[in-house]
Each structure stands twice: as C-alpha cells, then as structure tokens.
Amino acid sequence: MDDYQRRMTHIELLQTIVQNYHRFDSTFWSKIVRWQLEEYHRESKRILKDFNKALADHGHLEPGHRAYQRAIATATQAALAEPGPSPGDVTWADVFTVRHLFQDPALKAVIDSGWTSSDQRLELLAFIDQVLLEEPQFPPDCHAFLFT
User: Quick check: 98 and 136 in contact, CB under 8 A?
Assistant: First the structure.
C-alpha cells in the first residue's frame, strides 16, 4: 500500500470512529488508549535505542549529538512516566490524543536550537510532519470498523 492509500485508509478509520462513537462504552475506549500508550512507550524506547546505536556506530561525537541524546532520553523518560488511563474516565475523544516523542518539549527545544542547522531543521521538521500525519494510531482490530 502506498503512502497516499495508507493515509486515506487512516482518515476513513478516523471518520468511522467519530461517526460511530456512541456504539461503544468507556471500557472499549480505555483498551484503545492503553494500546496507544503501550505503542508510545515501545516507539520511544526504540527511537532512543536506535539513536544510541547510530551514535556508537558513528564514532566521533559532537556536542550536538550529546544534546540530542539527552533530549531523546528525557523525552523517553517522560513518555514512560505517562500514566495509563482510568477505565471509567476515558471517552471516545481520548483516543484522538496524539502521543509521540517528537512532541516532547525537550526534543523540540534541541531541534529549534543552534545544534541543528537550518537545512537539517527543515528536513527534520518535514520528516516529523510526515510521521504525525499517521497519528493517532489505532490497534489493528479497529480497522474492522471500515468493513462494518
């Protein structure tokens, strides 16, 4: 599936969830939020691990590398500290909360700092925009909504 088709399918899923929100209770929405939070944790740890591996493979570390490493580690800690949902308090709107490491203030500050050249910043921000176009994520089971 190409990027366009994947995005269109995602938009259709979002639209279907909004149109059918009344069919489900707080327990259902809690399961989705819990899954989203687990994915956020997993992805945050993966980004930190991959960045640390890239730094180790690179060999020569510059101060900017360390600034990014600290920011990604701080953002990952914040992601892992985010509490899970309280089942009775979750509503259908909560599944639309976007949770991604790229939204962390510490990481945003490094991206906007002098450690990142203008060209690198534009390239990184364009990449982040593409990643965030696919948010919020939903468990694979939710795609069955498109066929009901």
Answer: yes
Q: Is 62 helix (H, G, I), strand (E, B) or coil?
A: coil
Q: Omega before 83 cis (within 30°)?
A: no
- The CA–CA distances, whole Å, from 62 to 16, 49, 53, 68, 130 equal 47, 18, 15, 10, 27
Helix (H) / strand (E) element for 57: namely helix 26-58
DSSP, collapsed to helix, strand or coil, labels residue 90 as: coil
CA–CA separation, 38 and 46 (whole Å)? 12
Residue 113 DSSP class? S
* Distance (Å, whole) CA 63 – CA 41: 27
Q: Over the chain, what is the mean pLDDT?
A: 90
Cα–Cα distance measured from residue 101 to residue 110, given in angstroms and rounded to the nearest whole number? 13
Q: Which amino acid is at 13?
A: L
**Does pLDDT of 99 surpass 80?**
yes
Cα-flanking dihedrals φ and ψ of residue 117, to 5°?
Answer: -65, 165
Place of tokens 């994947």: 6
The pTM is what? 0.86
Residues found in the chain: 148
Structure tokens at 106: 């510490």
